[in-house]
Amino acid sequence: MTRPTIDVHAHVLLPAVESLVTGLPGHAEAKELDARRNGPAALAVSGPMVRERVPRLTDAAVRLAAMDAQGVDVQLVSPSPTHYHYWADEVSAEKLYRLANEATAAHCAKAPDRLRGLGLVPLQHPHHMVRALGHALEQGLAGVEISSHAPGRELSDPAYEPFWARAEETGAILFLHPFGCTLDERLDQWYLSNTVGQPTENAVALSHLIFSGVLDRHPGLRLIAAHGGGYLPTHIGRADHAWSARADAGAGCAHPPSSYLKRLYFDSLVHDPYVLRELVRVAGADRVLLGSDFPFDMGTEDPVGALRAARLPEADFHAVRGGNAAALLRKD
């Protein structure tokens, strides 16, 4: 029997979340910051692109038809990162994550054998995150999606320790997907906000988790990094050198940084077969999962074809295509 093909990087759009936050204090300022970071040319392209994809992002039947066309059996569906809204106050943030979790669960319930979901937690309010994770799991979701940072907080912040501990204890899947890059207007042309910003944010966030010892304290975390982990896996040698050469770099984690790649999971969305081969080499074939960024234009319409282009050994190809994700989802 052929194992299912599982895409762990697919999104759902939740209009009710945007209706909830529209007009709240801080919403307009957040939109203005996002506009400055992306620049007018990117916004002019992104608006029509998203509108054209709304049916795939909101209608489960349309989603399933698109999955069939791609040869994908199962999607792990996470809210669009535009729904993070880490500017929201505590009351609004609780309403937001509850609505997002319930709406994502309802979307996936339309085809429970083919759609699994992830919820949201308020990264800007660490003391609410354990409760938010619990709410997501109560809805039948497999875990939650988080960004690379919240305003004023990196993922190495000690305030997140209870969340990491609870995620490890429950076996929840954590999907690390950045939204917005703090390089701001330096990346406001040519869509650098995404092409450079996303892999940069991935690398920074993962480095905080590694160098601070979060992965030493919580070795059972099941964290998937979007976009193949960004720049970090292919430049991990520099991190290893710093760890061994400098007392300050090596003070927070017990082992060379490269060793922690084998404790993380990565999606396959790197847009280059040679980079994908390198990701499999440094992380292990059992730590890479198929990802498409469905249905956005920075994803791939043919995730299985992109994986096959890497010309991995057949066993590794099938592990990435679905075997690894199937094992991960069976444990949640």
TrEMBL record:
Q: Any keyword Lyase?
A: yes
The Amidohydrolase-related domain is annotated at 6-330
Q: Name one Pfam family in it.
A: Amidohydro_2
Q: What InterPro entries does this protein map onto?
A: ACMSD (IPR032465), Amidohydro-rel (IPR006680), Metal_Hydrolase (IPR032466)
Gene3D superfamilies given in the database record = Metal-dependent hydrolases
Matches recorded under SUPFAM superfamilies: Metallo-dependent hydrolases
Query: Which keywords has UniProt assigned to this entry?
Result: Lyase
Fetch the PANTHER family from UniProt.
Answer: 2-AMINO-3-CARBOXYLMUCONATE-6-SEMIALDEHYDE DECARBOXYLASE, ISO-OROTATE DECARBOXYLASE (EUROFUNG)
Q: What is this protein called?
A: Amidohydrolase family protein
Instruction: Identify the species of origin.
Output: Streptomyces thinghirensis
